[in-house]
Specification:
The structure is a homodimer of 354-residue chains. In chain A, 29% of the residues lie in helices and 28% in strands. Chain A folds into 3 domains: 85 residues, Rossmann fold; 61 residues, ATP-grasp fold, A domain (Dna Ligase, domain 1, 2-Layer Sandwich), CATH 3.30.1490.20; 165 residues, ATP-grasp fold, B domain (D-amino Acid Aminotransferase, Chain A, domain 1), CATH 3.30.470. Chain A has 11 helices and 17 strands. In chain A, strands 9, 10, 11, 12, 13, 14, 15, 16 and 17 form a 9-stranded antiparallel β-sheet that branches. In chain A, β9 and β10 form a beta hairpin. The radius of gyration of chain A is 20 Å and the shape is globular. The first copy, chain A, is of the alpha+beta class and 354 residues long.
């Protein structure tokens, strides 16, 4: 641990949402301070951060001051403008690295990267115009989903195409953004692996969790997932392959579709992940601390699972159920301190320990 | 939960040490912000607090501004000057209440309170001068410990008296502070109960832990304690009796000596307690969250223990063992972000899960 960042060092975090908030808490447990960079005012992470910069990602002076005030930079979301990354990278180490961001910021690049690694993905085709889309639909068939290549999350920037005559309308809905058409995968279940890779190249993965989405938003993650031992091993090996190929440092979320005969990679996220929140109640070292350990040069923590857990997101008005949830035993509640309740907004989550 | 403090409310914490730090983290999990009041600069809790006031407890203007900025006030140590409490209490609710503080700030008042409740303590006598001390030694015998009535912690303000001819020197060492002579208790083991009482009067106690001290400082707490079921039940009932009598709201630490035939109360602490740190690794809701739940009007959380844990304090240079401890599995490490290592200084702790 000779390269370990000393206690009292400052970790810069791009993005001030709930992931940044929980990363800040984890950083404090290891004796570190955090500095949040976030364009929006009063972000959730600010409540537990040592310092906060409120500035857009286009503000070079603010970015420079931020880099000067921190020892290492990480992020809680992947859609950070390239210009900001270029500047920051010239001043302080960014972990996970740019290669991981490049592979996840663009769905087309991501899928090509995964296929090159020998990993299965949904069938896909690049779509820049109506002609591309018609060709893609002919090849992939319907139903299919047209997605923007960049900046999509929680089901945003996606249009379902059920028949070819919807092509033009679907394309119009994306306002001319570069897109990708993805075929449907006939899967039994969706799982995800939360993997981590340390500065020393060591890898530790948590037990895969099984996910349930509603309306494009994660509703629950349950561990253990109802998969075979073989599938469990394959999922972990596959995540390790991705982490190593990217020379990755930090925690990554890998979403997988489980079909009858294979694991298909749906998406990789170069950050702590909503499907890893269960680790707060089921492991000695949770995903947030694991990420902080990785980017500060600590040995990775013990990712062994010692409890069965179901994590449920509290979305929008779900938060009104908190008084009742608080009364039930074996519930660990996490609220993000967001003042305004909006439909679809993640307000908190509950880890129920079995 | 109609009186529950709404999300986004601010909890004022008197004291900015590691307990305040971990209370701040727990507050964030329930959607609250914290404001730390601490005379010293850059206290550990400041790293994870929404706001910090750096001012002495004698600064009425600072106290007033602090009270104006928070919704409820709590504290991480009991030796807060009375004048500060008088002022704050007139402006915002203080939880736990003054009665609890009065009973724990003065060893003489504390022991009288416990005896009045029918609970056993070590034999004791008030000592204001040499004559008192000689009489007390004649009654209690030696060895005995002369302690200041107020403001003692971690073995400070205590003198061991092994024979009566040490009386004068012992008294001189306390510089004329009002004192108490305590007889020794012939105990097998020391345990402590971390109990909580909610705003609604409900009570929840964690499983008693067994403590080992070295040089007057807590070294380890282990759960389960090696006690009988009867002792376990008695210890919890005894803690509940104290909580109810004080109309207490919050978490309290009750240190007990286990002798052959009874439980003797050593000390009560009206706050989260070092001997309750194990709850971070062994319970769904830890003592810090339990305290925040109590003082903000939440239902108390599930205090059931689901793992065996040994908590070890990292004192002074122990912190240099962290790289090795981080490599061992089932260790959960907590560092307090203290820049300077001093002998006897609590730098962090490790929860080892069995």
């Amino acid at each position: 641990m000779s390269d370990v960042l000393p206690q009292g060092s400052v970790i810069g975090i791009l993005g001030g949402g709930q992931l940044g908030r929980m990363l800040s808490v984890a950083a404090s447990r290891l004796g570190y301070k955090t500095h949040i960079y976030e364009p929006g005012a009063n972000p959730p992470a600010a409540d537990v951060a040592h310092a906060v910069t409120t500035a857009p990602y286009e503000d070079a002076a603010a970015l420079r001051a931020f880099a000067g005030a921190v020892d290492v930079i990480t992020y809680e979301f992947e859609n950070i403008p390239t210009s900001a990354l270029d500047l920051l990278e010239s001043l302080k180490p960014i972990r996970p690295n740019r290669r991981a961001l490049a592979a996840s910021q663009d769905r087309l690049v991501e899928k090509a990267f995964l296929n090159d690694l020998g990993l299965a993905t949904a069938p896909f085709a690049a779509v820049d115009d109506l002609e591309d889309l018609r060709e893609a639909l002919a090849e992939i068939g319907t139903p299919a989903i047209l997605k923007t290549r960049r900046f999509g999350y929680d089901g945003k920037g996606q249009v379902l195409i059920e028949s070819t005559d919807q092509a033009e309308a679907a394309l119009a809905e994306l306002n001319g953004a570069p897109a990708i058409l993805e075929g449907f995968v006939d899967f039994f279940k969706e799982i995800s692996v939360i993997g981590a890779r340390g500065l020393d190249g060591s890898i530790s993965c948590y037990d895969p969790g099984q996910n349930k989405h509603e309306g494009g938003i994660l509703r629950t993650t349950t561990v253990p997932a109802a998969i075979t031992d073989m599938q469990r091993t394959d999922a972990v090996l596959l995540a390790a392959k991705i982490l190593t190929k990217l020379d990755y440092v930090g925690v990554m979320g890998v979403e997988l579709f489980v079909t009858r005969d294979q694991l298909i990679v749906n998406e990789i996220a170069p950050r702590v992940h909503n499907t890893g929140h269960w680790t707060q109640a089921g492991c000695t070292v949770d995903q947030f601390e694991q990420h902080i350990r990785a980017i500060t040069g600590w040995t990775l923590g013990d990712g062994a699972r010692y409890a069965d857990v179901e994590m449920t997101n509290l979305i929008g008005e779900d938060v009104e159920r908190v008084p009742q949830l608080a009364r039930e035993s074996r519930n660990q509640i996490h609220l993000y301190g967001k003042a305004e309740v909006k439909p679809g907004r993640k307000m908190g989550h509950v880890n129920h320990v079995f």
